[in-house]
Amino acid sequence: MKVFICSDLHVDYLTPEEYRDFTFPKADVYLIAGDHMNGVIEEHYQWFIEKTQGVPTYFSLGNHDFYGSSRDESIAKAKHLLANTNIHVVQDDHIEIAPGLQLWAADFWTDMNLTDNIPKVMGLSLTEWDDFKHIDKKENGQRVELLPKETLDWHQQSLQKFCDFANSTEDDIIFMSHHGVFIESLVRDFDEKPLTDIDGLRTSDLYPCFSQLKKPPFLVINGHIHIHNHHKMPNGTVLYCNPRGAHGVLKQEVLELNVTKTENGQRTYSIQD
Predict the structure, then answer these.
(1) Which fold has domain 2-271?
(2) Residue 110 burial (CB count, 10 A)
(3) Which segments within the chain are labelled E, that is strand?
(4) Cβ distance 90 to 162 under 8 Å?
């Protein structure tokens, strides 16, 4: 089973020539981990439908996908525009993408606790991050400012939903988040470049939590951090990120999944080395 994974396509930053000539590599499934564009733009969603050419495709949304609106409104609009197409928006939920293989996906945000200083990270998010300038919410019929505490609440709710699911299924799991999940998502030498509080807006460090699940995911996908990453964690989970970024280059690397059957007929999945 061939899977192509990418994120942060930011198609509204493509040049006219890049927009016209863009192609996805041949694969059985496309997994696209958020930041498709700024907002949810019908023209660009039609572009995704055309470019994926009927291949089963699964979206999580990212922070940029909510720009110009609220999170709830953006999710609803994306699902509406992609209804009855080959593209599925998976938000705080799971979907079977092959027999015995579940995808669980969400925007996921972060716990803001990477440096054990949640108040400082919250404060930095308002001064150093654009999300709270461009994403709002509706309250009593009025548009009001989104606050960092609410993204933390989203993260905690998503994490609880995922843990409940992972502890209840016998199927293998691919976990797809827009925001980072492990400290290794940052892809750097921490002796040369130590952690900063702003990193707490890029990723959490949930490896200990994930390792204790009854069914840890064998593949964890993130976007948001515009650095390619293909890393095997100590417990065997593969961490993967293939971003384009606003002006980058998307690697055309396709992952091959091995599929084996157990004695009781259960299918199990792994990443081919």
Answers:
(1) Purple Acid Phosphatase; chain A, domain 2 (3.60.21)
(2) 25
(3) 2-6, 29-33, 57-60, 87-89, 93-98, 101-106, 136-139, 142-145, 172-177, 219-221, 229-232, 238-241, 254-261, 267-271
(4) no
Q: Treating both helix axes as pointing N-terminal to C-terminal, what angle do 42-52 and 71-81 enclose, rounded to 10 degrees? A: 50
- Token representation of residue 222: 């993130």
Digit-by-digit pLDDT tens for the chain (273 residues) are 999 999 999 999 999 999 999 999 999 999 999 999 999 999 999 999 999 999 999 999 999 999 999 999 999 999 999 999 999 999 999 999 999 999 999 999 999 999 999 999 999 999 999 999 999 998 888 889 999 999 999 999 999 999 999 999 999 999 999 999 999 999 999 999 999 999 999 999 999 999 999 999 999 999 999 999 999 999 999 999 999 998 888 999 999 999 998 778 789 999 987
